[in-house]
């Protein structure tokens, strides 16, 4: 027997199969998807790989084929579907097969080595033979009073955690030696699952009776589930229309038929509320996978899923690779969210992967959002996917909030506040008097929160990254959010020497500071990267905001995601212009999504909600659409624009980025790459079905001391183009001056 093995390595030229011979005594253990140790290279260095194929013979000199060393025995094994999926990913997103396979391996086995990650275990003390001891109790020799005490307790309990016994009697292993020698007790080691729900407050909850609109959607999806066919559905339902309730009832249905479910949510750690709702409904058959779990915790969840103990997986994008068997539905909540696209290699799109998985499992793929992405909505309009809609809030007493735009040009510098208009100030005051809660939203993405010299306009920038540093009030430091560089604020401008800095830092801290001056009695809490970077940080803030009825929550993008705060009646969007002016062809779509989601935090229960958007560009088209909750209008204008200028969904954009330490190298090789690309792609460019754009310096031109240039391609991406690109990449594989990375429909254009 021979096998083809894929080595675990990120080295591109080893990303192919190597054949090995299997000694007869190991044949039984060999299965596709198992891991093996093999000798590799001239020095026969031990390497770990995955068995991809089993062969009867090899096509070259059999005497040259080496024997495998060992088949690794662990509980996980990749299925043949996993391997197929990995091959598809490596082709579509142009990454190494071993990198795409790694997505599906248990966490922690990053280098695919044999190390079994230390699953936490606990030692238990058991009575070995209870009958025997009870019979011989009076005749046991050497039973001192203290030993008797311990033995009596053990007889009472049968078993006890070693740690508990130690602390109870203040003893240690030396004391237990006698019990072991006399064969009275034995010590066993048991795996314990760490509990990722430790900090969650679990309350049993019952399903709502679905309202008419919900029921229609539910019935429609159920009929597809019953047919056991692949079906892709877009649920376009306004915020608070009861989508999550529908998910839970669909999953309940799927579970009853013996199948399992995956729910993807954007960056799960940001939405502990949704996890809590699922926990309350389904209890411990849910598994949660997200980036803030420790490796051990992730491994525990992985194993629970793999063994079939967890039947519902909730997680961020990589949860789509959970080893869940027998999948009956995949739900992608907030499908418009850009975090479903990975920015690290493999740069896969979790929605595309989900589709592959659902096709194979012949099940429903439910994409849902209040603000669907233009591309998805286009497919629904074309009839390629089924469109279902929910237009009213589920809670019959809740209505959509009123939305007003405040013109900031006529609102400058009153009351001594630079960032809060008179109108919003009064509304906050009114809310404080009524004892209702307020959320203030600040877009931080790309925001100039740097310190500017009022005299010469000098802005402090990170020496490594060429991005403005952000001023942190509490630490009195300027920090880089790309590489972590930090420096103290100088007294005088280093360029002109002036002391007139405007610490016009419109960061969450500055707002907090202004507010606490304006309303000294009021309680304020802040949710941003700094206050939430520890595990469950969001949960803590959200719980406090809710439970302690804190007056004002100030936050960034994290706020936009699905939180349900019944007592919030006022939402202020402080710097809408920042959101409206992102440098991306999706700027309008992003702004509409983000601001609508934020506005949707107001008035979720029976109290009326008010939303105020502060903007300098008050007549902006997107703001009009948001104000009138007019997704259709936004969509029509967007799709028109994209058609005219050929943007997705009318094409794919392939972005090739070149990185290097020396600017000239990067620049020259970018030009070289551009010329090569044109040769490789001439077949398409001649037919005018592809456009290759000349290299440009990236918007963020330097990150971590590496310069970056990029080349963009517009075309309808397909397998043939993928093959040509693969050949093109190979030319740069061994280049020591630059690295090259490819991203298909990247989430942003930097
Ligand atoms: P979405 O996911 O669309 O934002 P949710 O499922 O979170 O909506 O529902 C919004 C609110 O309405 C929640 O508080 C939820 O408990 C409530 N809700 C959902 N369905 C019903 C229903 N059928 N009857 C009454 N309340 C409901
Ligand atoms: Zn200056
Ligand atoms: Zn930096």
* Tally of strands: 31
Give the number of helices: 22
Q: What proportion strand?
A: 15-25%
Radius of gyration: 30 Å
Helix content: 25-40%
Ligands bound to this protein structure: adenosine-5'-diphosphate, zinc ion
Structural class determined from secondary elements: alpha/beta
* Overall 3D form: globular
- Uncertain runs are 111-118
In what order do the strands lie side by side in the largest sheet? 11-12-10-13-14-9-15
Q: Could you tell me how far the N terminus lies from the C terminus, measured between alpha carbons in angstroms?
A: 50 Å
Described by strand count, sense and barrel closure, the largest sheet is: 7 strands, parallel
Kindly state the mean pLDDT as a whole number?
85
Summarize the structure in words.
The two termini are 50 Å apart. The longest helix has 18 residues, at 663-680. 32% of the residues lie in helices and 22% in strands. The strands form seven sheets. Strands 11-12-10-13-14-9-15 form a seven-stranded parallel β-sheet, sandwiched between helices. A six-stranded parallel β-sheet has the order 16-26-25-17-24-23, with helices on both faces. Strands 2-1-4-3-5 form a five-stranded antiparallel β-sheet, with no helix packed on it. The chain binds adenosine-5'-diphosphate and zinc ion (2 copies). The site of one zinc ion (ZN) has 8 residues, from loops.
Task: Give a short overview.
By secondary structure, this protein is of the alpha/beta class.
Question: What topology does this entry show?
Answer:
Blueprint: E1 2-7, E2 17-21, E3 35-40, E4 45-55, E5 70-71, H1 80-92, H2 97-102, E6 121-127, H3 130-136, H4 145-157, E7 159-161, H5 162-169, H6 173-181, E8 185-191, H7 212-227, E9 231-237, H8 243-256, E10 260-264, H9 272-282, E11 286-289, H10 295-306, E12 312-315, E13 327-332, H11 350-361, E14 364-369, H12 374-382, E15 386-390, E16 402-407, H13 422-434, E17 437-441, E18 452-453, E19 470-472, E20 477-479, E21 486-488, E22 501-502, H14 508-518, E23 524-527, H15 537-547, E24 552-555, E25 568-573, H16 576-580, H17 587-599, E26 610-615, H18 621-627, H19 631-645, E27 652-660, H20 663-680, H21 682-686, E28 690-692, E29 696-703, E30 706-715, H22 719-730, E31 738-744
Parallel strand pairs: 9-14, 9-15, 10-12, 10-13, 11-12, 13-14, 16-26, 17-24, 17-25, 23-24, 25-26
Antiparallel strand pairs: 1-2, 1-4, 3-4, 3-5, 6-7, 6-8, 18-22, 19-20, 20-21, 27-30, 27-31, 28-30, 29-30
Helix pairs in contact: 7-8, 17-18
One zinc ion is lined by residues 462, 464-465, 480, 482-483, 485.
């Amino acid at each position: 027997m021979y096998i083809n093995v894929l080595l675990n390595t990120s080295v591109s030229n080893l990303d192919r199969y190597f054949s090995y011979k299997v000694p007869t005594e190991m044949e039984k253990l060999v299965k596709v998807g198992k891991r093996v140790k093999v000798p590799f290279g001239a020095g026969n260095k031990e390497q770990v790989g995955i068995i991809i194929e089993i062969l009867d013979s090899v096509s070259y000199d059999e005497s040259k084929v080496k024997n495998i060393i060992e088949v690794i025995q662990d509980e996980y094994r990749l299925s043949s579907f996993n391997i197929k999926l990995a091959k598809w990913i490596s082709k579509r997103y142009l990454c190494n097969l071993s990198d795409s396979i790694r997505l599906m391996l248990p966490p922690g086995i990053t280098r695919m080595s044999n190390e079994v990650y230390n699953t936490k275990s606990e030692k238990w003390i058991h009575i070995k033979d209870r009958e025997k001891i009870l019979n011989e109790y009076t005749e046991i020799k050497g039973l001192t009073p203290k030993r008797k005490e311990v033995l009596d307790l053990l007889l009472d309990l049968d078993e006890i955690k070693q740690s508990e016994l130690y602390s109870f009697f203040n003893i240690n292993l030396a004391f237990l030696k006698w019990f072991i020698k006399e064969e009275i007790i034995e010590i066993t080691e048991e795996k314990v699952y760490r509990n990722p729900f430790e900090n969650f407050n679990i309350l049993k909850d019952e399903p709502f009776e679905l309202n008419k609109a919900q029921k229609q959607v539910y019935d429609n999806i159920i009929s597809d589930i019953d047919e056991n066919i692949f079906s892709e559905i877009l649920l376009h339902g306004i915020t608070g229309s009861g989508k999550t309730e529908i998910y839970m009832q669909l999953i309940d249905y799927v579970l009853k038929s013996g199948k399992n479910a995956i729910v993807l949510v954007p960056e799960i750690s940001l939405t502990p509320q949704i996890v809590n709702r699922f926990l309350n409904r389904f209890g411990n058959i849910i598994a949660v996978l997200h980036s803030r779990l420790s490796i051990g915790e992730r491994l525990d969840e992985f194993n629970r899923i793999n063994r079939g103990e967890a039947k519902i997986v909730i997680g961020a994008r990589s949860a789509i690779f959970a080893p869940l068997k027998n999948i009956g539905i995949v739900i992608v909540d907030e499908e418009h969210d850009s975090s479903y696209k990975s920015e690290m290699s493999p740069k896969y799109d979790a929605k595309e992967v989900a589709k592959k998985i659902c096709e194979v499992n012949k099940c429903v793929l439910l994409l849902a959002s209040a603000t669907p992405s233009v591309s998805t909505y286009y497919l629904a309009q074309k009839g390629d996917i089924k469109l279902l809609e929910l237009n009213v809030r589920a809670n019959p007493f809740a209505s959509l909030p009123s939305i007003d735009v405040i013109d900031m040009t006529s609102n400058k510098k009153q009351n001594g506040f630079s960032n809060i208009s008179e109108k919003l100030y009064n509304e906050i005051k009114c809310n404080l008097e009524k004892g209702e809660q307020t959320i203030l939203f600040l877009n931080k993405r790309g925001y100039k929160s740097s310190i500017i010299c009022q005299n010469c306009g000098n802005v402090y920038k990170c020496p490594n990254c060429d991005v403005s540093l952000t001023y942190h009030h509490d630490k009195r430091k300027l920090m880089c959010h790309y590489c972590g560089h930090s420096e103290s604020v100088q007294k005088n401008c280093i360029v002109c020497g002036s002391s007139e800095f405007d610490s016009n830092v419109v960061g969450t801290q500055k707002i907090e500071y202004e507010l606490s001056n304006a309303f000294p009695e009021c309680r304020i809490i802040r949710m941003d990267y700094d206050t939430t970077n520890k595990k469950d940080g969001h949960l803590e803030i959200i719980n406090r905001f809710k439970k302690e009825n804190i007056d004002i929550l100030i936050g960034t993008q994290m706020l936009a995601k699905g939180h349900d705060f019944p007592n919030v009646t006022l939402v202020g969007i402080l710097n809408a212009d920042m959101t409206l002016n992102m440098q991306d062809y999706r700027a309008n779509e992003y702004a509409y999504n983000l601001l609508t989601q934020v506005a949707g935090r107001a008035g979720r229960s029976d109290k009326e909600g008010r939303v105020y958007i502060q903007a300098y560009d008050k007549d902006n088209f997107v703001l009009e659409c948001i104000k009138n909750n007019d997704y259709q209008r936004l969509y029509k204008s967007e799709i028109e624009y994209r058609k005219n200028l050929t943007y997705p969904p009318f094409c794919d954009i392939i972005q090739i980025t070149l990185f290097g330490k020396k600017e000239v190298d990067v620049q020259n090789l970018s030009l070289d790459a551009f010329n090569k690309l044109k040769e490789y792609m001439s077949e398409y460019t001649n037919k005018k079905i592809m456009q290759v754009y000349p290299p440009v310096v990236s918007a963020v031109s330097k990150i971590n001391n590496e310069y970056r240039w990029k080349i963009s391609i517009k075309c309808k991406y397909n397998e043939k183009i993928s093959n040509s690109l693969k050949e093109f990449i190979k030319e740069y594989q061994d280049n020591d001056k630059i690295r090259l990375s490819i991203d298909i429909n990247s989430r942003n254009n930097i």
